[in-house]
Every structure is written in C-alpha cells, then in structure tokens.
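Handoff note, outgoing to incoming analyst
You'll be picking up this chain. Sequence as last confirmed:
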Amino acid sequence: MDESGTTGGSVASGYTGKQDSGKKAGDVLVKRVIDTIRRNHALEHATITMMLARQGPMRVIGRAGTDGFYVFANVETDKLRAYADEALARLQRGEANLAITPLCGTNIAVAGVMAGVGAFAAANSRKGEAAGLFRAITAGILAVLAAQPVGRLVQKHYTTLADLDGVRIVSVEPVRGHLHKVRTAAA
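Most recent structure output, in case you need it:
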C-alpha cells in the first residue's frame, strides 16, 4: 500500500494504476484498424466506380475489411485487378470524390436511422392517432430525402478515408463464383 492507501497495481502484470498511457496506446491501435478499413472502403468504392464505368450497370456488392475488400460481381479477375489498380492510382493522385458513392450501404443505414427517429418523434406527439400517423409518414419521407446528402457526409468523414498514400494492392483472387478478394497492405 502506498501513502494514499491504495495498492497502486502490479508492474509485473502491466497494470500500474495509470490507465491513461495504456488507454492512449489502445486508442491508437483502434484508430489504426478503423482507418485501414476506411481506406479499403474508399478503394472498394473507387474500384466499383471504375468497373461500372467500363462495364455498365450490373449487380454488385462490396465489403471492406482490414486486409482489403470483397467484390461480388460478374467480372473477370484480371479486369477487376485493372479497375482496382486504376482506382488506387486515381485516389493516390487526389481524386477523393471516387471514395463517395450513392450506392453505399452507409446511405441506406443513415436513411433508416433518420426515418426511424423522425417517424418515432412525430408519432409520439399528442394530437391524435390519425394525425400522428400522418406526421410519422411525412417525417419519414422528409428524413429519407434529407438522408441522401447526410449519407454522403457520413461516408466522407466517417466510413471512408480517401488518403491511400502508402497503400498497395497485394492480389486480386477469385474466391467462388462471382466473389473476388482484393487484398491490400500498407507499403
């Protein structure tokens, strides 16, 4: 026990009673992981943008992670590699707009949250059930309309990171059927 009457912790176990330095190191690690996913998300968007521009409209699904991203689309692996290479080069040259897309699931999530909150707030006002239902529907519709630009802002500031300096594409591999894995790494 020290002068303050506490045990202060054990240095051998890594706990010294001072949580700030450990917390900061943990915060840095979490931020690094999140930023890696955000960069891969931006590259996924840009790659899909290149693909749609060259091949035309198609069904496509993308999913970013820490080691790259998946693309589910009817595309040849070598073409997907070329699209990913072009997307990376353009993002690295500063074309940050390629990281933002109206096709992103972030937009759907933002619209859902905004519509739900708006409808809930409007429906819970005390002016009668029929009027409350009308207000809830109106609030939901207005929220979905407002969610489009908000979704793009959320992508720009929270779910993508267009700064891909030092990022490289390691490989593009077919997984099964139309599913491909684009692997990335820091240079």
